[in-house]
Design a protein that fits this description.
Elements (H helix, E strand, L loop, with lengths): L1 E12 L4 E2 L16 E8 L2 E7 L17 E6 L4 E2 L12 E8 L13 E3 L23 E6 L13 E6 L6 E6 L1
Antiparallel strand pairs: 1-3, 1-7, 2-6, 3-4, 4-5, 8-9, 9-10, 10-11
């Protein structure tokens, strides 16, 4: 049974993210449509926020970290709850927290597990840890992986998404594999 630790929430899946004043909702470089907010996680006092193009699934390169079909944004001064623009898919919010697993993992329903925070990613394919695009830091730090979970996020055919950030600058990256 998954036992959540409500005293240590780390963010939310779906819903409307916290953003700074003047925030511009991200758009896909391929179709120019607005992206869907997937997750916002608190890491080291910053909010890592992931968006993905879901306007025409499979047509925009939303699986690549820097192809423009997804966006990972780092906020340090987010104080306003964004409103999802009209026509953009919006998932119901689910608060996520650090939890522990009591007993045997095989007894847990997959719908109770959203992924993992920290540690090492469980790659479906080969290791695709991105290098920071903004500075010479090299490979980015793994932050979290997300499974489709109860939202049934579109990460290909039962895929998994991976969120990274740079420890030296404010860059973040998001990719998925299936």
């Amino acid at each position: 049974m998954l036992v959540p630790d409500a005293a240590h929430p780390v963010g939310q899946l779906g819903g409307n993210p916290l953003v700074p004043n003047g925030f511009q909702w991200p758009t896909c470089v391929s179709c120019d449509g607005r992206m869907t907010h997937l997750a916002q996680l608190s890491v080291d006092g910053r909010l890592l926020t992931a968006f993905q193009c879901e306007n025409d699934p499979g047509m925009c390169e939303d699986w690549e970290p820097f192809a423009g079909g997804n966006a990972a944004v780092v906020f340090t001064d987010a104080t306003v709850r964004a409103t999802t623009p009209d026509g953009v898919l919006s998932y119901l919010p689910i608060l996520v927290g650090v939890g522990r697993l009591d007993g045997d993992y095989s007894s847990v329903d997959d719908e109770d597990i959203f992924g993992q925070f920290g540690g090492d990613p469980s790659w479906i394919q080969d290791d695709e840890t991105p290098d920071c695009p903004n500075c010479p830091a090299g490979p980015m730090r793994f932050v979290a992986q997300l499974d489709p979970g109860p939202h049934q996020f579109n990460f290909g055919d039962y895929g998994r998404a991976y969120l990274f950030d740079c420890s030296l600058c404010s860059a973040a990256a998001w990719l998925w594999q299936s």
